[in-house]
Amino acid sequence: MEPARGPRAEADAHEEEEAGAAMAAVVAAAGGTGPAVLQVAGLYRGLCAVRSRALGLGLVSPAQLRVFPVRRGSGRPAGGADGSGAGAELEANPFYDRYRDKIQQLRRSDPAAFESRLEKRSEFRKQPVGHSRQGDFIKCVEQKTDPLGKQPVSRGFTKDKTLSSIFNIEMVKDKTAEEIRQIWQQYFAAKDTVYAVIPEEKFDLIWTRAQSCPTFLCALPRREGYEFFVGQWTGTELHFTALINIQTRGDAAASQLVLYHYPELKEEKGIVLMTAEMDTTFLNVAEAQCIANQVQLFYATDRKETYELVETFNFRPNEFKYMSVIAELEQSGLGAELKCAQNQDKT
């Protein structure tokens, strides 16, 4: 049943109409599938602030959705800090504060590039309902990720981080795989980072699939909803960058998490060691772990439908459905503990 319109409904009719059309586009793009989404606080290209209730996964019809227009920030000019409607919309993004400094830096250092990106966002909002720009999004991702292997890893990450820089490989050659696993765990147990010991057969499956599908999309539960990250393989390194950061910074977007995989002991010991570096201003260890776990979820799965999301993202971007990523994450339960902790912090 359609919710009753409040006193502000008529005054905000234009905004609500736009939000309703955008929501219809989401439903059309998602093909009616995904988690039981009941409330959408705001819609952005490639990013939804989603709240779900404990109704499990299933089909969602437009009649089950409540659409809320984006509320302009009080005390600000109607056009945002730069006087443009697109600027106000960008600031209304629930993850805007996380990237405020970098966005403002781009606005100051290259105003033309900043305005160009805002114009692209405005063009997207003017597209007809159901129109898909996933292909353009993939091009944006490729433009950002292609140079990763050609330029030094800066912004606090180690370039060409080797296994020998962590421990003496010669000293563990006489150890068993289990003993090495224990040494690796003990070494990182007191460190605020992500690490793992991956069995040979699982890594081989991941690596084989990564060669044909080097890019994938994962979702991170946040208090505001879900934030999307793009994962890009560069050799045995896996770089993760927030989608909104790519959209606003383009080639200058910095990664927030890098996973380093070391196959040096794979042939002899049957294991691959993994550790990570992360930008702690954007991620904590639990959040980085949630992202890292999705590598196994999407690349090492036996479930055909799950890996097909990775294939679709790489080869048929116009058919890709963002909500399917959230559905897989919720079905796997990987983000449940993180969401529980966030809810406890909120209360």
TrEMBL record:
Keyword entries, A-Z: Mitochondrion, Transit peptide
Matches recorded under InterPro entries: ATP11
PANTHER family: ATP SYNTHASE MITOCHONDRIAL F1 COMPLEX ASSEMBLY FACTOR 1, CHAPERONE ATP11
Stated family: Belongs to the ATP11 family.
Subcellular location, record wording: Mitochondrion
Protein known as: ATP synthase mitochondrial F1 complex assembly factor 1
TM ranges: none
Gene name linked to the record: ATPAF1
